[in-house]
Write a structure and sequence with these properties.
With 161 residues, this protein is an all-alpha fold. It has a domain at 1-65 and 139-149. The chain is 67% helix and 0% strand. It is built from seven helices and no strands. It has helices spanning 2-18, 20-30, 35-61, 75-98, 110-115, 120-129, 133-145. Helix 2 runs antiparallel to helix 3, helix 3 (35-61) packs across helix 6 (120-129) and helix 3 (35-61) crosses helix 7. The longest helix has 27 residues, at 35-61. The mean pLDDT is 75.
Length: 161
C-alpha cells in the first residue's frame, strides 16, 4: 500500500509540474474582480475531468489482469518511446532557443481583458480541458494494478474477554 501511495503521489507531482498553466490560470482568475467564482468553477471543471477519468478507468479497465507477466513492453515499443521522448526534448530545446525577448513595454494582454467578461461555465469547461489526461490515466491504472480491496479490514479490538 505504501508503494501505491508513493507512485500515485509521484504521478500527482508530475501532473503539477507538467501543467503549471493550470496553477497560473487559477492565480490570474483569483486576481480579477469576481474571480473567486471563476477560479472555483475552473477547479470544479478540473475535478470533474479527474472523476470522469477515474470512472472510465474503473468501468473499462476493471476486469483486466494487471499482474500478468506478459504485460511488459517489447524492446521495439521501449525503443520507440525513447526515440519519441528524445525528439520531443530536442524540439523543446530548439523552441526555447528560438524565442525572442519582448521589446515592447509591459501591457495587459488582450486575452486577459476578454477573460474578465466570460461566464463561469466557460471556466468549468476550460478547467476540464486543461487536465493532463495521460498522467491521470497512468495514476488510475497504477491504482487498478495494486488490486486494492474496496472493503476495509475490521478494526482490532484492544480489549480482552
Amino acid at each position: 500500500m505504501g508503494t501505491l501511495v508513493a507512485e500515485v503521489a509521484a504521478l500527482g507531482l508530475a501532473v503539477a509540474f507538467t501543467s503549471p498553466v493550470s496553477v497560473v490560470t487559477v492565480i490570474v482568475l483569483l486576481s480579477m474582480p469576481s474571480g473567486r467564482r471563476r477560479a472555483l468553477a475552473f477547479v470544479f471543471g478540473w475535478l470533474i475531468a479527474i472523476a470522469a477519468i477515474g470512472a472510465i478507468a474503473i468501468f473499462v479497465l476493471h476486469g483486466q489482469d494487471f499482474s500478468s507477466k506478459h504485460s511488459t513492453p517489447s524492446r521495439a515499443a521501449s525503443a520507440l518511446e525513447i526515440l519519441l521522448g528524445s525528439l520531443l526534448l530536442l524540439w523543446a530545446v530548439a523552441a526555447y532557443r528560438r524565442r525572442q525577448p519582448s521589446k515592447e513595454g509591459v501591457s495587459e494582454p488582450k486575452w486577459l481583458s476578454r477573460v474578465e467578461g466570460t461566464h463561469w461555465l466557460l471556466a468549468v469547461a476550460v478547467g476540464a480541458i486543461m487536465l493532463s489526461y495521460a498522467l491521470s490515466l497512468a495514476a488510475a491504472s497504477e491504482i487498478l494494478k495494486a488490486n486494492v480491496s474496496p472493503s476495509m479490514p475490521p478494526p482490532r479490538s484492544s480489549s480482552s474477554p
